[in-house]
Amino acid sequence: MPEFRTIDAGAAQIRVAIEGQGPLVLMVHGFPESWYSWRHQLGPIAAAGFTAAAIDVRGYGGSDKPADVAAYSMEAITGDVAGVAKALQPDAPAILIGHDWGAPIVWNSSLSRPDQFRAVAGLSVPYSGVPNRAFDEIFTEAFTSKGHFFYQAWFQEVGPPEAEAEADVRGFLRKFYYFISGEAAGDTRPYKKHGASMLEGLVDPEVFPAWLTAADLDYYVGEFTASGFFGPISRYRNHQRDFAWLQQFRGRKLDMPTLLIGGDQDPAFNGFGRIADPGAMMREHVTDLRGVHILPGCGHWTQQERPDEVNALLIPWLKGL
Predict the structure, then answer these.
(1) pLDDT at residue 188, rounded to an integer
(2) How much of the chain is helix, strand and coil, in % rounded to 5?
(3) Mean pLDDT throughout 98-121?
(4) Which single residue of 94, 102, 122, 162 could bond 24 by disulfide (Cβ 3.0 to 4.6 Å)?
């Protein structure tokens, strides 16, 4: 296991898993994960000559868990990332890597604080620039208004989503992880009507894909049994706050080396069907895109499903900065 430190990030205490010495590479996870989702990257990045650090986002694991939905805004969480980076490497800008929600978090950390970060990589979710509309308005128009289920709509009301997940943490994680993994066939991603719950119709496979072992699942179950799901799900309840905060950066591009890695079986990589070419979209908003890598057969859990391939892309990019 790596060394764990609790860092005062300014507005929150953030747990960080750390290995190695050298320039800081700070990794940010998504939902429903933890620092542990970077377990396959910490050692190799450290061995390549970097300080490899992976945080528990506020609301998760060993980090603070505020009781207010607004505490999980993009402004607040990017502030945590900046605070951790400054505490661990006060005299030089850090490098950021993020997956799932961690990708928008690192994109927007870099956008809002370009003096603190010198390069950024995103896994699964491409950078689409400062938004013209809040994302809850987009999914309402595309899904909810047509009577279609969309998981982020299910997450809006405080209470029912947490109750469903916490009633059987292991079952929730198994089903959620599986249904957007590369191993899940198309018919395991069920069509549902608006009003259904997250777990309705999802498959719990008899044999789970090898990339998540029983011991890995045990670790995640322990973390979420202790922390609950209010904080993690509340990230989805801040679209209006996020939109309002980001408008001050309109017209600004990400002016630093960037990298994008995704899987061709990941619905988030193409914006749930809205983005035909993630790389082309990113080039409109970044000045130095150094690669767009699409892993065949890979689902949403990029660095866990394909750790060797992801490391083989990340480490040369890091060394080339």
Answers:
(1) 60
(2) 40, 20, 40
(3) 98
(4) 94
Q: What CA–CA distance (Å, rounded) separates 56 from 64?
A: 9
The amino acid sitting at 307 is: P
Catalytic annotation on 100?
A: yes
308-318 mean pLDDT: 98
Q: Around Cβ 191, how many Cβ atoms within 10 Å?
A: 9
**Catalytic site includes residue 148:** no
Q: Where are the alpha helices (DSSP H) in the chain?
A: 39-47, 74-88, 102-112, 135-142, 151-154, 160-167, 169-179, 214-227, 230-234, 239-246, 278-283, 302-305, 307-319
State the pLDDT at residue 122: 98
| Contact predicate 55/81, CB 8 Å | yes
Its pTM stands at: 0.97
Q: What is the DSSP letter of 54?
A: E
The answer to whether residues 300 and 266 touch, using CB atoms and an 8 Å cutoff, is yes
Whether 267 contacts 125, CB under 8 Å: no
**Confidence band of 17 (pLDDT split at 50, 70, 90):** very high
Q: Which two tokens stand for residue 169?
A: 């943490």
Q: Which of 80, 100, 136, 266 is the catalytic position?
A: 100
Residue 133: alpha-carbon gap to chain centroid: 21
**164-181: b or e for each residue (b if 16 or more CB lie within 10 Å)?**
bbeeebeebbbbbbbbbb
